[in-house]
TrEMBL record:
GO CC term, one of those recorded: extracellular space
Source organism phylogeny: Eukaryota, Metazoa, Chordata, Craniata, Vertebrata
UniProt protein name: CPXM1 carboxypeptidase
Gene3D superfamilies cross-referenced by the UniProt entry: Carboxypeptidase-like, regulatory domain, Zn peptidases
Pfam family name, one: Peptidase_M14
Length: 241
């Protein structure tokens, strides 16, 4: 059909008919309900939010690929991630789901909005295609006006996204990179796509060295303390060692 003529939904669903992009557990709603009832964080956690029981049932509509990725995330303490999409030139950051459930678009920042905006900007400003002054619009949205980054929910709501799940269930900060106008680039275009994204990928990975690093130790024994909760004043989202 041609690289820019295929529909956005082509190839999106698995053999079982599941959209993996919306298949993670919705932890946002539980958090926001608890916040509205002033239960966070003394009665309801602001991080490491547990997966709802219904999601773990054998008959739940959860793809085996999704279950495998969640198991992978629970075994390894990732702190930085990105998932790569095609069809646009923009970097999106959480939250992906609108807080007002009936709204298709709504600015819905996380407690770590400044960090996420930085991470998205690092990728967008070093991506050759996004940073080009000669670039054209992919479709209808002019993301260049916003530095080629946008809050995911302010673009279009995505309940059950991997970005939101990573942030709320693990220590991992994750963004989405829409890395090409073409959802299905021709083979001949792949070297150019690689050059457009190579430096961005490297710079993005280097961001793991930002922030505070160290080991939380018992002051008497010097032993490391596993799963110590670290809180930062003014940020209602803790992390764990």
């Amino acid at each position: 059909q041609g690289s820019e003529l295929s529909g956005w939904a082509m190839g999106r669903w698995t053999y079982e008919g599941i959209d993996l992009n919306h298949n993670f557990a919705d932890l946002n709603t539980a958090l926001w309900d608890a916040e509205d009832n002033d239960l966070v964080p003394h009665e309801f956690p602001n991080h490491y939010i547990p997966i709802p029981e219904y999601y773990t049932f054998a008959n739940a509509t959860v793809a085996p690929e999704t279950r495998a990725v969640i198991d992978w995330m629970q075994r390894y303490p990732f702190v930085l991630s990105a998932n790569l999409h095609g069809g646009e030139l923009v970097v999106t950051y959480p939250f992906d789901m609108t807080r007002t459930y009936w709204k298709a678009q709504e600015l819905t920042p996380t407690a770590d909005d400044g960090v996420f905006r930085w991470l998205a900007t690092v990728y967008a400003t070093s991506n050759l295609a996004m940073a080009s002054e000669e670039r054209r619009l992919c479709h209808y949205d002019d993301f260049m006006r916003f530095g080629n980054i946008i809050n995911g929910a302010n673009w279009h709501t995505v309940p059950g996204s991997m970005n939101d799940f990573s942030y709320l269930h693990t220590n991992c900060f994750e963004i989405t990179v829409e890395l090409s106008c073409d959802k299905f680039p021709h083979v001949s275009e792949l070297p150019t796509e690689w050059e457009n994204n190579r430096e961005s990928l490297l710079l993005y990975m280097e961001q793991v060295h930002r922030g505070i690093k160290g080991v939380v130790q018992d002051s008497d024994t010097g032993q490391g303390i596993a799963n110590a909760v670290i809180s930062v004043d003014g940020i209602n989202h803790d992390i764990r060692t």
